[in-house]
């Protein structure tokens, strides 16, 4: 999704729900508390990455999306 594309209200709501679900799944899967997970997501711009991948993420399952995010983070040098 390019910066110029505008999300509809429903897409914005869906994006928010995807971000929340993936945040919680990351916390549980990677044994992080909320602060650690928030720091990781903010430091590596994971919320922006999720927005960029919205077109794919809204049709894939959460586990596949989390695997994609884990790969993204590893490529950025994050340790999870």
What labels would you give this structure?
single chain, 80 residues, mainly alpha, 5 helices, globular
Could you give a short description of this structure?
The chain contains five helices and no strands. It is an all-alpha fold. Helix 1 (9-29) packs across helix 5.
Task: Describe, in plain words, how this protein is organized in 3D.
The protein has 80 residues and is mainly alpha-helical. 70% of the residues lie in helices and 0% in strands. It has five helices and no strands. It is globular, with a radius of gyration of 12 Å. The mean pLDDT is 93.
SSE arrangement:
Elements: H1 9-29, H2 34-43, H3 46-52, H4 54-57, H5 62-75
- Unreliable runs: none
Shape: globular
Q: In DSSP terms, counting alpha (H) and pi (I) runs of 4 or more, how many helices?
A: 5
What share of residues are in beta strands? under 5%
Rounded mean pLDDT is 93
The tally of beta strands, per DSSP, is: 0
* Classification by helices and strands: mainly alpha
Radius of gyration: 12 Å
Largest sheet properties: none
């Amino acid at each position: 999704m390019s910066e110029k594309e505008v999300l509809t209200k429903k897409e914005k709501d869906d994006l928010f729900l995807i971000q929340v679900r993936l945040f919680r799944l990351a916390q549980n899967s990677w044994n992080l508390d909320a602060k650690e997970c928030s720091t990781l997501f903010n430091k590596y711009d994971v919320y922006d990455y999720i927005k960029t991948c919205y077109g794919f993420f809204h049709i894939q399952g959460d586990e596949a999306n989390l695997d994609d995010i884990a790969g993204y983070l590893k490529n950025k040098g994050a340790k999870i």
